[in-house]
Design brief:
There is one protein chain. The chain is α/β, with parallel strands linked by helices. The protein has one domain: Metallo-dependent phosphatases (Purple Acid Phosphatase, chain A, domain 2, 4-Layer Sandwich), CATH 3.60.21. The protein has ten helices and ten strands. It has a five-stranded mixed sheet, with helices on one face. It has a five-stranded mixed sheet with strand order 4-5-6-8-7, with no helix packed on it.
Length: 249
Amino acid sequence: MWKSLSRPTKRNEAELPSVPADARIYAVGDIHGRIDLLDQLLLRIDAHRNAHPIARPLEVFLGDYIDRGPASRDVIARLITRTSTRGAVCLQGNHEMLLRWFLDDPATLEEWGRYGGLATLMSYGLAPSVKPDRDEQLKLATDLKRALPSAHHHFLASLALCFTYGDFFFVHAGVRPRIPLRRQRADDLLWIRDDFLLWEQEFGKIVVHGHTPVPQPEIRSNRINIDTGAYATGRLTCLVLEGNTMSFL
Protein backbone atom coordinates (compact mmCIF):
# COMPACT_ATOMS: atom_id res chain seq x y z
CA MET A 1 0.00 0.00 0.00
CA TRP A 2 0.99 3.61 -0.33
CA LYS A 3 1.93 4.07 3.33
CA SER A 4 3.89 0.81 3.48
CA LEU A 5 6.10 2.21 0.72
CA SER A 6 6.87 5.31 2.81
CA ARG A 7 4.96 7.62 0.54
CA PRO A 8 4.77 11.05 2.26
CA THR A 9 1.08 11.85 2.54
CA LYS A 10 -1.50 13.30 4.90
CA ARG A 11 -4.36 11.48 3.19
CA ASN A 12 -6.32 8.90 5.14
CA GLU A 13 -7.04 5.49 3.62
CA ALA A 14 -10.24 6.61 1.87
CA GLU A 15 -8.46 9.58 0.29
CA LEU A 16 -5.51 7.67 -1.19
CA PRO A 17 -5.24 7.93 -4.99
CA SER A 18 -6.81 4.96 -6.70
CA VAL A 19 -7.90 3.37 -9.95
CA PRO A 20 -11.53 2.36 -10.58
CA ALA A 21 -12.94 -0.79 -9.02
CA ASP A 22 -12.24 -4.05 -10.88
CA ALA A 23 -9.31 -2.41 -12.71
CA ARG A 24 -5.56 -2.93 -12.51
CA ILE A 25 -2.80 -0.95 -14.23
CA TYR A 26 0.58 -2.36 -15.22
CA ALA A 27 2.79 0.65 -16.05
CA VAL A 28 6.19 -0.03 -17.63
CA GLY A 29 9.17 2.33 -17.71
CA ASP A 30 11.72 3.14 -20.44
CA ILE A 31 12.82 0.06 -22.44
CA HIS A 32 15.45 1.46 -24.85
CA GLY A 33 15.90 -1.50 -27.14
CA ARG A 34 16.19 -4.15 -24.41
CA ILE A 35 13.93 -6.84 -25.86
CA ASP A 36 15.43 -9.35 -23.42
CA LEU A 37 14.20 -7.38 -20.42
CA LEU A 38 10.83 -6.63 -22.03
CA ASP A 39 10.16 -10.30 -22.79
CA GLN A 40 11.04 -11.29 -19.23
CA LEU A 41 8.74 -8.61 -17.84
CA LEU A 42 5.85 -9.55 -20.11
CA LEU A 43 6.11 -13.11 -18.82
CA ARG A 44 5.85 -11.80 -15.26
CA ILE A 45 2.87 -9.62 -16.17
CA ASP A 46 1.11 -12.55 -17.82
CA ALA A 47 1.81 -14.78 -14.83
CA HIS A 48 0.46 -12.12 -12.46
CA ARG A 49 -2.66 -11.64 -14.58
CA ASN A 50 -3.28 -15.40 -14.66
CA ALA A 51 -2.71 -15.80 -10.93
CA HIS A 52 -4.83 -12.77 -10.02
CA PRO A 53 -7.64 -12.40 -12.59
CA ILE A 54 -9.40 -9.05 -12.72
CA ALA A 55 -12.12 -7.64 -14.97
CA ARG A 56 -10.14 -4.72 -16.39
CA PRO A 57 -6.38 -5.22 -16.58
CA LEU A 58 -4.56 -2.56 -18.60
CA GLU A 59 -0.91 -2.26 -19.59
CA VAL A 60 0.57 1.22 -20.10
CA PHE A 61 4.02 1.71 -21.62
CA LEU A 62 5.60 5.11 -20.97
CA GLY A 63 7.70 5.62 -24.11
CA ASP A 64 11.39 5.44 -25.08
CA TYR A 65 11.13 2.00 -26.64
CA ILE A 66 14.05 2.61 -29.00
CA ASP A 67 17.71 3.76 -29.12
CA ARG A 68 20.77 2.79 -27.07
CA GLY A 69 19.91 -0.89 -26.73
CA PRO A 70 20.46 -3.36 -29.59
CA ALA A 71 16.89 -4.43 -30.43
CA SER A 72 14.67 -1.41 -31.05
CA ARG A 73 12.92 -3.05 -33.99
CA ASP A 74 12.08 -6.13 -31.91
CA VAL A 75 10.76 -4.00 -29.05
CA ILE A 76 8.39 -2.13 -31.36
CA ALA A 77 7.23 -5.39 -32.95
CA ARG A 78 6.52 -6.86 -29.51
CA LEU A 79 4.56 -3.80 -28.41
CA ILE A 80 2.50 -3.85 -31.60
CA THR A 81 1.54 -7.44 -30.78
CA ARG A 82 0.83 -6.47 -27.18
CA THR A 83 -1.43 -3.65 -28.30
CA SER A 84 -3.45 -5.91 -30.58
CA THR A 85 -3.72 -8.85 -28.18
CA ARG A 86 -3.89 -7.10 -24.81
CA GLY A 87 -5.20 -3.64 -25.67
CA ALA A 88 -2.07 -2.03 -24.25
CA VAL A 89 -1.66 1.76 -24.23
CA CYS A 90 1.67 2.91 -25.67
CA LEU A 91 2.76 6.50 -25.06
CA GLN A 92 5.29 8.51 -27.02
CA GLY A 93 8.73 9.24 -25.61
CA ASN A 94 11.22 11.85 -26.74
CA HIS A 95 13.23 9.13 -28.52
CA GLU A 96 10.28 8.14 -30.72
CA MET A 97 9.82 11.83 -31.50
CA LEU A 98 13.49 12.08 -32.55
CA LEU A 99 13.05 9.15 -34.95
CA ARG A 100 10.05 10.84 -36.56
CA TRP A 101 11.98 14.12 -36.79
CA PHE A 102 14.77 12.29 -38.61
CA LEU A 103 12.36 10.86 -41.16
CA ASP A 104 11.06 14.38 -41.87
CA ASP A 105 14.47 16.11 -41.69
CA PRO A 106 17.55 13.88 -42.13
CA ALA A 107 19.80 16.70 -40.86
CA THR A 108 18.55 15.94 -37.33
CA LEU A 109 20.51 12.67 -37.37
CA GLU A 110 23.40 14.38 -35.58
CA GLU A 111 21.14 15.18 -32.63
CA TRP A 112 19.37 11.81 -32.72
CA GLY A 113 22.73 10.08 -32.83
CA ARG A 114 23.71 11.68 -29.53
CA TYR A 115 20.70 9.95 -27.99
CA GLY A 116 21.58 6.51 -29.33
CA GLY A 117 19.73 6.68 -32.64
CA LEU A 118 22.42 4.83 -34.61
CA ALA A 119 21.57 1.69 -32.64
CA THR A 120 17.99 1.95 -33.87
CA LEU A 121 19.13 2.31 -37.49
CA MET A 122 21.28 -0.81 -37.10
CA SER A 123 18.35 -2.74 -35.61
CA TYR A 124 16.52 -2.14 -38.92
CA GLY A 125 19.43 -3.54 -40.91
CA LEU A 126 21.15 -0.25 -41.82
CA ALA A 127 24.87 0.40 -41.41
CA PRO A 128 25.46 4.06 -40.51
CA SER A 129 28.98 5.40 -40.17
CA VAL A 130 30.04 6.97 -36.89
CA LYS A 131 29.60 10.52 -38.25
CA PRO A 132 27.30 10.44 -41.29
CA ASP A 133 27.67 13.39 -43.67
CA ARG A 134 24.75 15.12 -45.37
CA ASP A 135 24.55 12.67 -48.28
CA GLU A 136 24.61 9.69 -45.94
CA GLN A 137 21.97 11.28 -43.72
CA LEU A 138 19.62 11.61 -46.69
CA LYS A 139 20.26 8.03 -47.77
CA LEU A 140 19.76 6.67 -44.25
CA ALA A 141 16.43 8.48 -43.93
CA THR A 142 15.28 7.06 -47.26
CA ASP A 143 16.48 3.58 -46.35
CA LEU A 144 14.82 3.72 -42.93
CA LYS A 145 11.49 4.71 -44.45
CA ARG A 146 11.74 1.61 -46.65
CA ALA A 147 12.95 -0.63 -43.83
CA LEU A 148 10.19 0.33 -41.41
CA PRO A 149 7.25 -2.07 -41.85
CA SER A 150 3.94 -0.30 -42.37
CA ALA A 151 2.81 -1.51 -38.94
CA HIS A 152 5.82 0.23 -37.38
CA HIS A 153 5.06 3.47 -39.24
CA HIS A 154 1.49 3.32 -37.95
CA PHE A 155 2.62 2.50 -34.42
CA LEU A 156 5.00 5.47 -34.26
CA ALA A 157 2.41 7.83 -35.74
CA SER A 158 -0.35 6.74 -33.35
CA LEU A 159 1.47 7.02 -30.00
CA ALA A 160 -0.45 9.12 -27.47
CA LEU A 161 1.25 11.86 -25.46
CA CYS A 162 -0.49 11.04 -22.19
CA PHE A 163 -3.15 8.85 -20.61
CA THR A 164 -5.41 9.43 -17.62
CA TYR A 165 -6.97 6.69 -15.53
CA GLY A 166 -8.53 7.14 -12.12
CA ASP A 167 -6.38 9.44 -10.01
CA PHE A 168 -3.29 8.89 -12.18
CA PHE A 169 -1.81 10.74 -15.15
CA PHE A 170 0.62 8.68 -17.25
CA VAL A 171 3.22 10.48 -19.36
CA HIS A 172 6.78 10.02 -20.56
CA ALA A 173 8.72 12.90 -18.98
CA GLY A 174 6.38 14.91 -16.75
CA VAL A 175 4.24 18.04 -16.73
CA ARG A 176 4.69 21.78 -16.37
CA PRO A 177 3.70 22.95 -12.86
CA ARG A 178 0.81 25.43 -12.58
CA ILE A 179 -0.53 24.37 -16.02
CA PRO A 180 -3.74 22.27 -16.05
CA LEU A 181 -3.09 18.72 -17.24
CA ARG A 182 -5.41 19.14 -20.21
CA ARG A 183 -3.37 22.14 -21.43
CA GLN A 184 0.14 20.69 -21.24
CA ARG A 185 2.48 21.22 -24.19
CA ALA A 186 3.98 18.28 -26.06
CA ASP A 187 7.54 19.54 -25.47
CA ASP A 188 7.03 19.41 -21.72
CA LEU A 189 5.30 16.02 -21.76
CA LEU A 190 8.26 14.57 -23.68
CA TRP A 191 11.28 16.49 -22.35
CA ILE A 192 10.72 18.31 -19.04
CA ARG A 193 12.98 17.57 -16.09
CA ASP A 194 13.95 19.90 -13.22
CA ASP A 195 10.90 22.19 -13.26
CA PHE A 196 8.77 19.09 -12.87
CA LEU A 197 11.02 16.92 -10.70
CA LEU A 198 11.66 19.62 -8.10
CA TRP A 199 8.00 20.64 -7.76
CA GLU A 200 6.56 19.47 -4.44
CA GLN A 201 2.95 20.57 -4.76
CA GLU A 202 0.13 18.63 -6.40
CA PHE A 203 -0.45 18.41 -10.16
CA GLY A 204 -4.15 17.51 -9.97
CA LYS A 205 -3.41 13.78 -10.31
CA ILE A 206 -0.49 11.56 -9.39
CA VAL A 207 1.90 11.68 -12.36
CA VAL A 208 3.44 8.34 -13.35
CA HIS A 209 6.46 8.97 -15.57
CA GLY A 210 9.86 7.84 -16.83
CA HIS A 211 12.51 9.79 -18.79
CA THR A 212 14.87 10.51 -15.88
CA PRO A 213 16.71 7.35 -14.75
CA VAL A 214 16.74 6.56 -11.03
CA PRO A 215 18.35 3.60 -9.18
CA GLN A 216 14.97 2.40 -7.94
CA PRO A 217 11.37 3.57 -8.38
CA GLU A 218 10.97 7.05 -6.91
CA ILE A 219 7.72 7.57 -5.01
CA ARG A 220 6.77 11.14 -4.17
CA SER A 221 3.55 12.68 -2.90
CA ASN A 222 2.75 14.00 -6.39
CA ARG A 223 4.54 11.65 -8.81
CA ILE A 224 6.08 8.19 -9.33
CA ASN A 225 9.19 7.74 -11.49
CA ILE A 226 9.61 4.21 -12.89
CA ASP A 227 12.54 4.74 -15.28
CA THR A 228 15.19 2.54 -13.67
CA GLY A 229 17.65 2.87 -16.56
CA ALA A 230 16.97 -0.52 -18.13
CA TYR A 231 19.56 -0.07 -20.89
CA ALA A 232 22.43 0.47 -18.45
CA THR A 233 21.21 -1.32 -15.30
CA GLY A 234 19.31 -4.31 -16.62
CA ARG A 235 16.31 -3.32 -14.46
CA LEU A 236 13.03 -2.73 -16.27
CA THR A 237 10.33 -1.68 -13.82
CA CYS A 238 6.61 -2.38 -13.85
CA LEU A 239 4.35 -0.50 -11.42
CA VAL A 240 1.10 -2.26 -10.53
CA LEU A 241 -1.83 -0.09 -9.41
CA GLU A 242 -5.00 -1.65 -8.06
CA GLY A 243 -7.62 0.05 -5.90
CA ASN A 244 -5.58 2.37 -3.67
CA THR A 245 -2.56 0.07 -3.48
CA MET A 246 0.60 -0.28 -5.52
CA SER A 247 3.37 -2.82 -5.94
CA PHE A 248 6.15 -3.61 -8.41
CA LEU A 249 6.89 -6.61 -10.63
